[in-house]
Amino acid sequence: MALIVQKYGGTSVGSPERIRNVARRVARWKSQGHDLVVVVSAMSGETNRLIALAREVQGEPDPRELDQMVSTGEQVTIGLLAMALKDIGVDARSYTGGQVRILTDNAYTKARILSIDEHNMRADLSAGRVVVVAGFQGIDAAGNVTTLGRGGSDTTGVALAAALRADECQIYTDVDGVYTTDPRIVPNARRLRTVTFEEMLEMASLGSKVLQIRSVEFAGKYRVKLRVLSSFQDEGEGTLITFEEDEHMEQAIISGIAFNRDEAKITVQGVPDRPGIAYQILGPVADANIDVDMIVQNAGVHGLTDFSFTVPRGDFARASRLIEEVRQHIGAREVIGDERIAKVSIVGVGMRSHCGIASKAFRALSEEGINIQMISTSEIKISVVLDEKYLELAVRVLHDAFELDREPV
Ligand code: ASP
Ligand code: MG
Question: What is the Cα–Cα distance from 11 to 323, expressed in whole angstroms?
Answer without folding.
Answer: 42
